[in-house]
Amino acid sequence: MPGTVTISIELELGWGVAKYGKLDKLSDGRMAETQYLSRLLERCDDHDVPITFDVVGHLFHENCAGHHGGPHPDDWWDIDPGTSVDEDPAFYAPDLVEDIRSRRTTHEICTHTYSHIECDAVDPTVVEWEVDRSRRVHERNGVPAATSIVPPRHGTPPSETLAEGGIRVKRSPHYRAPGERRPSSDVRKLYEILLERHPTVSPREMDGIIETYSPEYTTLAVPYLQTGQYSPHPVYRPIPHTFRQRLHAWNLRRGVDAAVQGGDVHYWCHLYDLANEQQWPQIDDFLGYLAKRRDRGDVEIRPMRDLPAICGQPTLNEADPAEQPGIVIE
Ligand SMILES: [Zn+2]
Ligand SMILES: [Zn+2]
Fold first, then answer.
1. Deepest of 46, 143, 194, 258, by most Cβ within 10 A of its Cβ?
2. How far is the CA of 67 from the centre of ligand 1 (A)?
3. Could you tell me if 304 and 209 are in contact, meaning their C-beta atoms sit under 8 angstroms apart?
């Protein structure tokens, strides 16, 4: 049986960076993000590749008054400009949501919470509010209710809250088998990012939610090249730039090859990561390669919404824990 490739891209723009003083990671007026999303969507149509876009609910709005209530900490909405898409396109992006929806390929719009909340750092009532508010935003905009979630900054949300909000699938950081350790040193971590093949880990059901796994670091766009408008970390710079680009292309293809051998590979990054000429050419090449292998029947491309089906789980309630798939780590 062929393996699967899942691609998820976080669309959060200012909501993911403003709190950390990194708004300049985005391009002016997020023009590059808008343009590269369009290029990506064109390529997806050329090759019939569906992607899971993890969209922060607030980005659906044309404008707002700058405060949304909720059981959040008092200063939570301080970064909300309370303006409109024309004035602050990093905080409102109905045009990008529309671009995704208008394409021939049926992409998945999953939730990345309403305001990029770190789910393990707040009270569960805040997570509940965020999931519910995202659901309402989808409904109001005629977008199918999200059945998947990508928790911001890998902050684990309570499974019960997700299940109650209709969420069946979540992306989690790379599951490591018992005995398999996280890299114990910076050198080892560097080696993993640069040279190890993409991990293949089968999705599995945990507390009623199917988890799909990807490394903590981005793997569609990569940290060793320019990410958004930021230069890569100085540790990567002694490696010639053209070599790093070749490494990126090789690593992307190697992940597909791992899936062809029967694994499940989940690539991810943020939209702003790939929105530059250092990252994009390799991703363009990868989409063509992935589609070619899929067309040959070597691999399947599955957005997150399709993962319950490959886990043999028609509904959450009918899931039989005894029949959950095992974990394969390579
Ligand atoms: Zn707002
Ligand atoms: Zn995010």
1. 258
2. 6
3. no
- Return the number of other C-beta atoms located less than 10 Å from residue 94's C-beta: 14
Cα–Cα distance measured from residue 51 to residue 53, given in angstroms and rounded to the nearest whole number:
6
- Distance of CA 157 from the midpoint of ligand 1 (Å): 22
Q: Phi and psi at residue 301, in whole multiples of 5°?
A: -105, 120
* Per-residue pLDDT reduced to its tens digit, 134-193: 999 999 999 999 999 999 998 999 999 999 999 999 999 876 665 666 777 888 888 889
What residues have their beta carbon closer than 5 A to ion ligand 1?
64, 80
- The SS3 call for residue 29 is helix
The model's pLDDT over 47-81, given as tens digits with 9 standing for 90+, comes to: 999 999 999 999 999 999 999 999 999 899 999 99
Instruction: Give me ligand 2 centre to Cα 92, in Å.
Output: 15
- CATH numbers and ranges of domains, the chain: 3-323 (3.20.20.370)
How far does residue 114's CA lie from ligand 1's centre (Å)?
A: 10
Q: What is the DSSP letter of 312?
A: T
- Going from the Cα of 39 to the center of ligand 1, the distance in angstroms, rounded, reads 28
